[in-house]
Amino acid sequence: MIVYFDCKPHVKDALDALVSGGRYRDYGEVISVAVLNLRVVEDAAAAGPVVVAGPGSITAAAPQVAPANEGTSSRVVSVPPLFGIHDLPR
């Protein structure tokens, strides 16, 4: 699939930096990873707040749970380690 979009200069600079860093083959790979990561974050956020608190600390806060007598259930949401920042250059 071919996707066309208006790429502002600061976004192009970010794409160039990511590709030249050697972790991605090309712009398509950077954009694909970004879209998939956004999906993970939005899915986690749908269940409750997501907190990014600094280097090595990405967590999803437990969703607020109604009292048990209201018949609701909860699930704990966490961001997969694959999307953590522990492997990023400092």
What this model shows, in words?
Helix content is 36%, strand content 10%. A hairpin with a 2-residue loop joins strand 1 and strand 2 (57-60). The chain has helices at residues 9-20, 27-46; strands at residues 50-54, 57-60. By secondary structure, it is α+β, with helices and mostly antiparallel strands. The model has no long low-confidence stretch (mean pLDDT 76). The protein has a two-stranded antiparallel ribbon. The protein has one domain (9-83). The longest helix is centred in the middle third of the chain and has 20 residues, at 27-46.
Structure, briefly:
The chain has 90 residues and is an alpha+beta fold.
Q: Main beta sheet, described? A: 2 strands, antiparallel
Number of domains: 1
SSE class: alpha+beta
Instruction: Quote the beta fraction.
Output: 5-15%
- How many individual β-strands? 2
Helix content: 25-40%
Strand order in the largest sheet? 1-2
Note the overall shape.
globular
State Rg. Answer: 17 Å
- The mean pLDDT is 76
Number of helices: 2
Oligomerization state: single chain
**Which regions have little confidence, pLDDT < 50, spanning 5+ residues?**
none
